[in-house]
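Researcher: Can you fold this with nickel (II) ion in place?
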Amino acid sequence: MCGRIMDEWKNALRRHVAVGVRTTSELIRLIQPGDWDKRPIPGKRSVYEVAVHLAVLLEADLRIATGVTAAEMADFYAVPVPVDQIVDRLDQSFQYYEQRLLTGFTTRPTYWGVADDSTGWLMEAAVHLYHHRSQLFDYLNVLGYEFDLALFE
Ligand code: NI
């Protein structure tokens, strides 16, 4: 692949992930104190759990992509994220993602045996972010939130 095309897809991916992060932050900032523990879909993640999952997944997925163990990921997920730090944690994950997007990284099979290259993992993390942003968007709608947010640019 020639350098210019490489830059094009990296720039495009960074732009779309940045939009996903910004709009996710806007949704998280809307959440009222009494709603964090609600489960709009019974048996599925709470509002808090979806927000924290969104905050860490860009970093988590790229760590998994480097072949870390299940125990290392359990430690990663066990770090508590207080409600008032979720947006900052999301920004931190985006910085982690952006740095690896720009510099590249070496992948190894996941602890459950899936192998992919760095491009595949960067795409996976992006669609994963948008998947859960949609989940949070739906949760807030079900809970009666009214907001006007442009989800795509
Ligand atoms: Ni997920």
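Model: Folded with nickel (II) ion in place. The chain has a mean pLDDT of 96.
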